[in-house]
Amino acid sequence: MRPTEILMQEHRVIEQVLDCLETMAQRAEAGERVDLESAKQAIDFFRNFADRCHHGKEEDCLFPLLEQKGFSREQGPTGVMLHEHEEGRRHVRGMDQAVSTISAGNSAATADFVSHARAFTQLLREHIRKEDHCLFQMTDQALSEQDQSQLLESFAHVEQDDMGPGTHEKYLDIAAELAKRYGVRCRVSGTSTGSPCCGHH
């Protein structure tokens, strides 16, 4: 499996939780109380699986390698992707702050939660589209077989050393739990099936 295939599989998991987040926002807009437990799970997922694990692989492993191959950070795709990662973090912080405010009894923060949730969902869906259909194709053309192997090894280090054993599976289970709760189509198999998702066999 190529590194880009691993990242694309992770995109499917992220999209699954984005679908759940969008449903949360729709229900909140319709006047329902925000399901704080689900919102906290989604925020935890986006911070740790989508950002620390997935974006960590891109920022610490893939992007530096592409820049070594001549991709320009200032005028090339990696700079754009990094900027969008930062934008995503800002929206996640906004959702987290809104959830804390709602938890403290101020339901007026529901509008802030919905605003950040919608902006984050739109941003990440477009970001994923750019990577899947543009950046990753460029990556596969630019990297040799040896580069690909080294990148796979560095991805494994992110999983084992940065995230810790079992962390990846924990977040796949959270994604499956949220999908079941919100009636969202599962885009990937859960860990109970022994899915090799994201490089785990």
CATH-derived architecture? Up-down Bundle
The CATH homology group name: nmb1532 protein domain like
Question: What is the CATH topology assignment?
Answer: Four Helix Bundle (Hemerythrin (Met), subunit A)
Q: What is the approximate shape? A: elongated
Instruction: Give the radius of gyration.
Output: 17 Å
Distance between the termini: 11 Å
| Secondary structure: helix percent | over 70%
Question: By helix and strand content, what is the structural category?
Answer: mainly alpha
Number of helices: 6
Helix/strand layout:
Layout (H helix, E strand, L loop, with lengths): L2 H27 L6 H33 L8 H27 L6 H33 L2 H19 L3 H16 L19
Helix pairs in contact: 1-2, 1-4, 1-6, 2-3, 2-5, 2-6, 3-4
Please provide a written account of the structure.
With 201 residues, the protein is mostly helical. The protein has a single domain, classed as nmb1532 protein domain like (Four Helix Bundle (Hemerythrin (Met), subunit A), Up-down Bundle). The protein has six helices and no strands. It has helices at 3-29, 36-68, 77-103, 110-142, 145-163, 167-182.
Can I get a quick summary?
The chain is an all-alpha fold.
